[in-house]
Specification:
By secondary structure, the protein is mainly alpha-helical. 59% of the residues lie in helices and 0% in strands.
Length: 82
């Protein structure tokens, strides 16, 4: 995989045209796979949600991640709710 060989910006400059095309395909596959995973983890397996995540990712230039609860000292554990 070409993507595995990229460690810094200069590595991309060393790629030939065929390798760049392969890299584009690998990046697309990576993004689609991670957005789909986020949809499944969010229990929102709809095209509209997938499209929204893809647009947000493009706007923010970042890969989507699933959210988790923030660390906070006032959060009570399950023991408090008996």
């Amino acid at each position: 995989m070409v993507l595995d060989r990229i460690k810094k910006v200069n590595d991309i400059k060393q790629l030939n045209e065929e390798e760049l095309e392969e890299l584009q395909e690998e990046i697309r596959d990576f993004l689609v796979e991670n957005i789909a995973k986020t949809c499944v983890e969010s229990n929102a397996c709809r095209y509209s949600y997938f499209k929204k995540l893809l647009k947000n990712m493009q706007d923010n230039h970042s890969v989507p991640t699933t959210s988790s609860l923030p660390e906070h000292s006032n959060l009570r554990g399950k023991e408090e709710y008996r």
